[in-house]
Amino acid sequence: MASLEDVRRAQANIHDIVHKTPVLTSSLLDEYCGNQVFLKAEHLQKTGSFKIRGAANAVKNAVREGAASVTAASSGNHGQAVAYIANRLGIPATIVVPEDANRAKVAAIEAYNGHVVYCGMTSAERIPKARQLADENNGIYIPPYDHADIIAGQGTIGLELLEQIPELDLVFVPVGGGGLISGILTAIKALNPQVKVIGVEPESANDTYLSLQRGEITAIPPSATIADGLRTAQPGDMTFPILQKHLDGLLLVTEAEIKEALQFLMERTKQIVEPSSAVAAAPLISGKAEVKGKRVAVVLSGGNVDLHQLAGFLPDKLHV
């Protein structure tokens, strides 16, 4: 299980790669939600998402251990991050993506000289393929979330949140495989356990919710949620125990609530984010979170949205 020391080492390891992303505020958002809301702008991060943090930590460590190439399985953002850091370090990267991968994300992977391989629709299909390709090419497989270096890298967001937002009460984090929220939990619960960390998951991709309810890792069929970065089949073997131990709650949001949050963020805060980011804001904007008068951080996990698909991600009308 990752530790605070692992997160601090990751912060030192990746400081020359990643941005310390800003925290954005909106008086209209505060008024609408009845809380002081702080948007952690990982959509402004290098490669357009938080994934560069874990990927940079893992790939740099792999190269130190002698890796000559890397592979990854990704719906897009992790693949972009691995391709970017591998290209920067001068080693080849092969990224296995789903058949319906976001075109903007695939184009970015290729722009970073990553070799793209299409396989299936779920992480359960992509991961074995990526492992196979790593074995065939004498490379190292870089997991999207279930790896100590990945979790520690994502945990650097938790360190930044505590530094940037004094007297923080709550953090809302989108949940896919669990790497992001596991890292944030590892950092925040070690430094200030009074801060509550709440996961948010699409109703149609509720593998973590079901796993927590049943007390064991539970797989689900492929999901069609617009939050493509959260379409995991099940939580990770390493991430799930961290959630079981530290998570303060998990909320499910509908596709309509995700769309409403996405439009609100774009129209009222002028931030272009992907649906997976809007998932974390959806409980506050919809009122499902049922919290008032708190200092609340929302992790906007990424901004790699395909503009050709954007109209389909938005509701016909936003009621405010």
UniProtKB/TrEMBL annotation:
Keyword terms of this UniProt record: Magnesium, Pyridoxal phosphate
Domain Tryptophan synthase beta chain-like PALP: 17-302
Organism superkingdom: Bacteria
UniProt xrefs under InterPro entries: Ser/Thr_deHydtase_PyrdxlP-BS, TrpB-like_PALP, TrpB-like_PALP_sf
Pfam families: PALP
Cofactor: Ca(2+); Mg(2+); Mn(2+); pyridoxal 5'-phosphate
Protein name: Threonine/serine dehydratase
Organism: Planococcus chinensis
